[in-house]
Design a protein that fits this description.
The chain is mainly α. Helix content is about 80%, strand content about 0%. The radius of gyration is 18 Å and the shape is globular.
């Protein structure tokens, strides 16, 4: 294996290791941001844009799912379609959940998000065809999991007890920030995957990568379920 791919593989392992090691800090909002949100009122477009973008860039569970979604998508139109379905799903439940104050247990919703990562890795490995002899509709699956990811985002925002004044505008700004962060993160991920696809090692290590994806999802889901039963 070329040296560059040995380094890429090591880098991926290190990223996943540290991400899972610090799961307790997932989706947390730093104290400065919390204080700002508690003290601020009215429409705050720029701050909520930043908070949304930062949340997506550091939200490795969302990114792991998206890596699985685009891993075997080679056409730009397919990538845009699947990412749009995911965006539609999480945008709807993010806005609906916060505006209607729908309370969802944070541990359970994050466990489902972890399961979505397992699902996509399993699907990429051909598991549904090999084990169950079925071919799931991936478009519907991505949309449905997008809805759950949106409820996860809504749950984090509800914990901050945002003020009613300017709430809709701030939520829209947060959601746009999410899309900006998603665009930036996906752009980098696509560059790496596109470069990797031009080498023979892509097919050789695709099984390893998606197995690692499933393992990451399993650890995320197990952690959240443990938190649910303990708390």
């Amino acid at each position: 294996m070329p040296v560059v791919f040995r380094h890429l593989t090591k880098l991926l392992l290190v990223i996943v290791f540290f991400a899972l090691s610090f799961t307790t800090f997932a989706h947390t909002v730093d104290e400065d941001t919390k204080q700002f949100l508690l003290q601020s009122s009215g429409i705050q477009i720029i701050p909520f844009l930043y908070i949304g973008a930062d949340h997506m860039v550091t939200g490795y569970d969302h990114l792991l799912f998206l890596v699985g979604v685009i891993f075997f998508l080679f056409k730009t139109k397919d990538i845009l379609l699947y990412v749009s379905l995911f965006t539609l799903g999480h945008s709807v439940t993010l806005l609906f959940g916060v505006l209607n104050n729908i309370q969802v247990n944070a541990y359970l919703i994050d466990a489902i998000i972890g399961f979505s990562v397992i699902y996509k890795g399993f699907d990429n490995l051909g598991g549904f065809q090999k084990v169950f002899n079925i071919t799931p509709n991936n478009k519907i699956a991505v949309l449905i999991f997008g809805l759950f990811h949106g409820f996860g985002l809504a749950t984090k925002l509800q914990e901050l007890q945002l003020k009613e004044e300017g709430l809709l505008e701030n939520l829209l700004a947060f959601n746009v920030g999410i899309e900006i962060g998603q665009f930036l993160a996906l752009g980098l991920i696509l560059l790496v995957i596109s470069y990797w696809r031009n080498h023979k090692s892509f097919q050789r290590f695709s099984v390893t990568t998606n197995t690692l994806l499933m393992s990451s999802g399993m650890m995320l889901m197990t952690y959240q379920l443990t938190g649910y039963f303990i708390n």
